[in-house]
Amino acid sequence: MVPEWPSTLDVGELLTGGWRPTPFRQFILKIHSRCDLACSYCYVYEMADQSWRTRPRRMSRDTVEKAAARIAEHAAAHGLPVVEVVLHGGEPLLAGPGEIGHLVRTVRAAVPARVEVSVQTNATLLDDAFLDLFAELDVGVGVSLDGTAADHDRVRRTHDGRGSHARVAAALGRLTAPPYRHLFAGLLCTVNPRTDPVETYRALLSFGPPVIDFLLPHANWSEPPWRDGTATPYADWLIAIFDLWWSTRPRPAGIRLFDEITHLLLGGASATEQIGLSPVAMAVIETDGEIEQSDILKSAFQGAPATGLHIDRNPFDDLLLLPSVAARQIGRLALAPACASCPVGEICGGGLYAHRYRSGSGFHNPSVYCADLLRLVRHVGNTVQAGLSDLTKEAR
Ligand code: SF4
Known about the structure:
By secondary structure, this protein is of the alpha/beta class. The chain is built from 14 helices and ten strands. It is globular, with a radius of gyration of 21 Å. The structure holds iron/sulfur cluster.
């Protein structure tokens, strides 16, 4: 059997050729491996990798302390002035305020750098006790919300099939009230072309998020996404929102995907793994202390994010030299031939790495959302260019 890419990547050859890895700046701590919701599209529980079944439910204090020491070691070795720690799960709030408070204080005490902490939550448990803690420790709060109540409740349900929107909306009401408003980091919404994009956008805006993150549902060539027979349903959905967002001044919220594409078109670098060719500088620590790659890879195959490394034995520098991690840091060199010669290759960057997977060839493919990404990037590019021409005319 031919080994799947990137296991064939020769990191020694890259180093000899002058390539140097980019240190990790973001650490995703999986502090609880279970969730109180059972969302239909969840990559942790509903897709290929089922490693959650054998993990401890909660990260122990011993693991937290070792993780903090490893982050500190990495920050010191690379002279990092700032590191970002994201509390993730499962549902991280299931760990409870006591454990979360201990974790944040432990990491901040250990790491010789500014430690920016945020939590990504479904918000069903986000009460005043958590909010007081997050205000005390300056922890940003990102919330997952999939648009209108009906659309959200169709996919983000409890284990016994009840919708979660009412609880999330109540939590967002608390989070966006004056004492806590500054903690609100934004909303995360999964793209769903079966919903009305403008209604979805307006439902998200009703909570006044500073930023909205639209994520394509996790899929790949072996597990393709839902399609309705049209050529680019995901791009069409996003473009309906983009056109409204672009024509509204001032913009009511940042939309990370559109901001990133615009930034790349104007010659900047991307700051998300969704788009562009910037090196991925993020590592994951699981509840048992295993060091993994992006957990979105769980959507590809069983064990896809596994590295064989553990905070008991390995510094993060060991992770930097794995072929699977180097592949996320070498930009154009890691692109499939179709992406390397693509007219929007520098902007799209082959899309999210997990979405390139095909059983048999691995990740050396264009994104399964290729047609959608091509259309979206071209549409944003044409719109930005038209806007620049108008500005030039006004200036004359
Ligand atoms: S649009 Fe398609 S071919 Fe072009 S870079 Fe993106 S995934 Fe690759």
